[in-house]
Amino acid sequence: MSGRLYSPPEEAFKRCLSELQRCIYYFRIVQILDEEPRNTIGIDFLALARIAFYDQMVAHAIKVFDRDSKSVTYWQIAQNHADKVGDIEVRLSFSSQEVRRIAEGLRLIRSKTHFHIDRVSVINPTKIWKDAGVTWDDIERLAKFGYAVVEAVYFKQFGLKKPLQDYYGNDLREIMKLADANGYPFV
Predict the structure, then answer these.
(1) How many other C-beta atoms can be found within 10 angstroms of the C-beta atom of residue 134?
(2) Nearest to 151 by CA among 24, 20, 62
(3) Rounded to two decimals, what is the model's pTM?
(4) Burial tier of 115 (Cβ tally within 10 Å: 0-12, 13-18, 19+)
(5) Is residue 72 within 8 Å of 12, Cβ to Cβ?
(6) Distance CA 127, CA 116 (A)
(7) Are the CB atoms for 176 and 186 separated by under 8 Å?
(8) Distance of alpha carbon 20 from alpha carbon 61, whole angstroms
(9) What are 8-54's pLDDT values in tens digits?
């Protein structure tokens, strides 16, 4: 491309924002499912839902922060907008070095256990997470930072705001209470 940086189309911004929004929402749902006391033992709908939301949360983060030259991801959106990235780094106390560190860890997780069943890593997938150095909080902070950057650049490029809608899972808590009141002991 003769030295010119790739300028992603508007659809790429919308897709990255959608992926990050889901990552953040799924993070909140998994948090609630982990926080609420449960009287069930073994596999039930909420145990399966927790696994599914967790897997999707990680998958959406991996997609947006993948460093593949054939993909349109956070990196292609942020590369031409160091000013916006720098402003958000200061506002959210989160550095580009942290983004790279977590993204590299997610790539290891992706390659060894999340999207591939590595023949060595299958023995101890928890070790992959430890080796990757990615924590639960890292995923939430990365997703919120990524959303803020992509949304700011989207506004700069297209003049449109896409604020993250609030979702705190109050409906999930109510569903769990209703189920318990009707004989299904979620809580």
Answers:
(1) 22
(2) 20
(3) 0.89
(4) exposed
(5) yes
(6) 15
(7) yes
(8) 7
(9) 899 999 999 999 999 999 999 999 998 877 666 667 788 889 999 99
